[in-house]
Design a protein that fits this description.
The chain has helices spanning 4-19, 28-40, 97-114, 134-140, 143-146, 200-218, 256-276, 296-308, 325-331, 362-378; strands at residues 44-49, 53-59, 63-70, 119-126, 151-158, 165-167, 171-174, 176-185, 189-190, 225-234, 240-241, 244-253, 280-289, 292-294, 312-314, 334-340. It is of the alpha/beta class and 379 residues long. The structure holds zinc ion (2 copies).
Length: 379
């Protein structure tokens, strides 16, 4: 579908982005690069939505489709040793958002050259996917009021699937998530005289084990849910019982009543255990992203477009990982799609310091975008 020179240029943009990763809401350079290219091809471009987001439109009115690429990097120190490795210490494109951006740019160039008929296309280059919900901020700042979309689509490269595979599930695709920070406080004292202090360390340890058992005993075995304790911070000496411990982690679920149950039971378990050890607990529990749920019609459309390209398109998953495209799917019908991107040999996963987007699938993703638009607007 694409001129080979255009594919080479897209790979060069991808590697340039990889070399210059920017964290959520700080994607200034990335945003400039995107807007400059799109304007050059004749797209009507708006910058500054959710600080560093870029939105572009092309077409002749009528039906409208939104295509989203996330553009942010992660706070990870890259260890790939690539010649285009990150030049920004402690920052890295370890989730392939450099690839998502380049894929959508290559598609945008082709769409501008072919012209868009039968409706219009809105490109959504979204900041801050990784932690801060850039999708939610774009919506709050008027994304869909200014750029009405009948349906929206997002793609994520998926190293767990071979190139040539494409997955779009009907319904639940990625989990909802919350984070928690529990502070347990009691009297501290001498390590030799435990009866003179409260059991802060014991309470933190029991909280950690009890919380990880919570889904197994409080949710039906048929209902997915995760509670992972990922940090315990306490103590400073061999012979001192500390007066404070902090226990942090994350929870995941799909069904909202399971999410409510996990939050309620977590609080009961924490306060009960703290009280049993003579301690007090404070819980900071923050729900971050809702579940990513595809509409069946749009997931089916994505699979048919994939099949027409000769891809092995089907349903798999879901994953207990989370994704802020969920906020867009709460507003509009649409689908979140996994594009197979495994590498031969060593195949580091998403968020690994050795991860690098597989450029082999860049034209596949871009071709999928172009064909999806043609098909969606011809209906
Ligand atoms: Zn990620
Ligand atoms: Zn990602």
């Amino acid at each position: 579908m694409f001129e080979s020179a255009h594919i080479d240029e897209a790979i060069a943009w991808r590697r340039d982005l990889h070399r210059h990763p920017e964290l959520g809401f700080q994607e200034e350079r990335t945003s400039k690069l995107i807007a400059g290219l799109l304007e050059g091809w004749g797209w009507q471009v708006q910058t500054g939505l959710a600080k560093t987001g870029v939105v572009a439109r092309l077409g002749d009115g009528g039906a409208s489709i939104g295509l989203r690429a996330d553009i942010d990097a992660l706070p990870i120190e890259e260890t790939t040793g690539l010649e285009y490795a990150s030049s920004h210490p402690g920052k890295m494109h370890a989730c392939g958002h450099d690839g998502h951006t380049a894929m959508l740019l290559l598609a945008a160039r082709q769409m501008a050259a072919e012209g868009v008929t039968g409706g219009n296309v809105t490109l959504i280059f979204q900041p801050a996917e990784e932690n801060d919900g850039g999708a939610r901020v774009m919506i709050e700042e008027g994304l869909f009021r200014q750029y009405p979309c009948d349906r929206v689509f997002g793609i994520h490269n998926w190293p767990g699937l071979a190139p040539g595979r494409l997955v779009a599930r009907d319904g639940e695709m990625m989990a909802a998530f919350a984070i928690f920070e529990i502070t347990i406080e009691g009297r501290g004292g001498h390590g030799a005289m435990p009866e003179q202090s409260d059991g802060v360390v014991a309470a933190a340890a029991r909280v950690a084990t009890a919380l990880q058992e919570l889904p197994a005993r409080r949710l039906s075995p048929l209902v997915p849910g995760v509670v992972s304790v990922t940090q315990i911070h306490t103590g400073s000496a061999f012979n001192v019982c500390p007066d404070r411990a902090v226990v942090c982690g994350t929870t995941r679920w799909f069904q909202s009543d399971a999410g409510d149950e996990i939050e309620t039971r977590l609080a009961e378990v924490v306060h009960g255990i703290a009280a049993a050890h003579g301690c007090r607990a404070n819980i900071d529990y923050q729900r971050r992203y809702p579940a990513t749920v595809n509409s069946a019609a749009e997931a089916g459309l994505a699979r048919r477009v994939g099949e027409a390209m000769g891809l092995d398109a089907g349903e798999a998953g879901p994953s207990m990982a989370s994704e802020d495209f969920a906020f867009m799917l709460n507003e509009k019908p649409g689908a979140y799609i996994w594009l197979g991107a495994a590498r031969q040999g060593e195949n580091p996963g998403l968020h690994s310091p050795r991860f690098d987007f597989n450029d082999e699938v860049l034209p596949t993703g871009a071709e999928f975008w172009v064909r999806l638009v043609r098909r969606a607007l011809s209906v």
